[in-house]
Write a structure and sequence with these properties.
The chain is of the alpha+beta class and 424 residues long.
Length: 424
Amino acid sequence: MSYPKLIIIFIFFGLSFAQRSVNDFIEPPAFDAAYDIFQGDKLQTTPDSISLVKGETKQITYTFSGNLTKAIKVYFNTTANNIRLNPNVFTISPNLKEGSLNATGLDVTSRTFIDVYKCEILDGSGNDTCPFNKTESFVRVKVIHSHAIEILVSVTGWIYFVAWSISFYPQIYLNWKRGSVEGLNFDFLVLNIIGFACYTVYNWLMFFDHSVQDLYIQKHERALIPVLTNDVVFATHALLACIITGVQCFFYERGQQKISYTCMGWGSILIAFSAISFAITIFSVIDWLQFINNLSYVKMAVTLSKYFPQVILNIRRKSTVGWSIGNVVLDFTGGSMDITQMILQASNTDDWSGFYGNPVKFGLGLVSMIFDIVFLIQHYCIYRNSDSDVSYDVVQTTDNSSTRTLTNPAETSTSTIESPTGHY
């Protein structure tokens, strides 16, 4: 079976797998003593997270969802001294199952929590058992310098989402307009498809599968699920756009361009790693969370490697014709907005751990921007006069020599440069 067919099978297998529902196999967390008699009862919070500017006060409402036969005092505390609660206790009863408290920001912090400290049943028995799971009744609090900066964080997020989402279309349009995919490196495209296939499966399972979410919460207590709706939409859309670009390669003029041996080997390693991870997950050697984490490692490896073939192709062709600069500009815009958002978030909470605590995210974004700068220099500086639609039937790339045929539509003649034949 040919290498491109293997890739296509892998893509659709991944998409169909991502839609399956994995059966829950997570044991419930330990509850308070005697919690089993109140199974399903909760003290719900509205809202479950708030942002405060220093000195600002917001109200939090708590509602008990179960049945009560006696009045209960509920006491609260905070995990840090960045906020003040007033009051820090209220009473719920059979006739009044709702209470509220006010939280005031005292000092900037990226995250702290308001917790239920204890309960007191008002029957004189001294029983302090809460009729709900205390560990679930918490509120995330962030104290920031400015709501205006927080708005900018949201704006930059939408900018990079839109920029990255539409960055695939300039290349698709350019291929259609030229009726050719010459100048677009097939290695780059293949690696992109592999990367976004893994990224799509990761996002779908993390977002839709509750058992995976439970595993994540068990390992990252009180953390938010790191995948949002826009992540799922972006990943799926990106994969489909890459597949469309791949389909164009079968129908448009491509000369004798082929996938290089290096890409075949590297891509096979990435696919094999993903397939083995899936197999050992099925046999419970690793859990589903580790499986999708392995897929995220594949995406990282793709990001670090996919740009090199296109850079080398541009150098050897001495031209960027066929490689959409619009794609590069939009990708650079998205990357710069992503890093800008990280800077804004860090400065608004005085927490820079996003840079040194999660160097992978920052590093991958920086790598993409560096390559975008290389492409911009190639297009606008080094090869800025090579803007005619030049066609090369075969061009040496990363690992093979080949016969190169140059055709310039502006000329009536065709020149051929002979070199040892190879497979691209």
